[in-house]
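pinging the channel bc i need a second pair of eyes. not urgent but kinda urgent?? the chain im working w is below, pasted from the shared doc
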Amino acid sequence: MTPTSTRAQTRERLLLTAERLVAVHGIDAVSLRQISVEAGQRNNSAAQYHFGTKEDLIRAIFAFRLVTINRRREDMVDVIVRDGRGRDLRALTEAMVRPLAEQIDGGGSFYVRFLARVHQHAGASVYALPAMGVEGSATRTGTMIGEALGHLPRAVRRSRLQLGGSLTVHATADREQRVHDGTPEDVLPPAAFVADLVDAVVGIFSAPVSEETLAALGVPTQVPEPARLDGQLG
């Protein structure tokens, strides 16, 4: 085994250990030293040596995981665009949801719970969260969903995107935990879970805006027509 391959294996072991510990305990409860020890490194400073700071290690976990997630999401969006369905709200929402949900299909995953922990962290902006659309395929998908919701007031549109993203992350993290706990009676089959979660998120995106919400925003109380589920605006 070459020094390069050994280094790569060590880095991956540290990444997976950090992902698991953050998923279980949260960011602030986990130290770089603890990650090194749990990863079986004789050098307790191994995580710091390979990644520098905890923030850099968190970003490295995202970079490690997003290769697969971004490729899958980009492929789905490319098909949507090729088929002329760039305003198809359900198809775009599925492209947002499915690549994340697929991370837990094989079992043994901690990534979505890790993502939920970072999402909840008070300093989440420090990590340039891909889940918030800062980078990667989420940006393209979020932009297209926003365009499909162009009939909504801007503040409502932004709020709906945040609510839909939050539901996606936390519902999927909850499913990952239930799969991990071995409680199949509480877990829908994978295909049904994705379809139902897409239904719920589309419901958030396409719900009519009430007169109460418009009045609270100081917007004229003429309620816009909701987006049709095929994404074609009425």
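so The CA atoms of residues 67 and 136 lie 9 Å apart. and The radius of gyration is 20 Å. — does that match what u expected or am i reading it wrong
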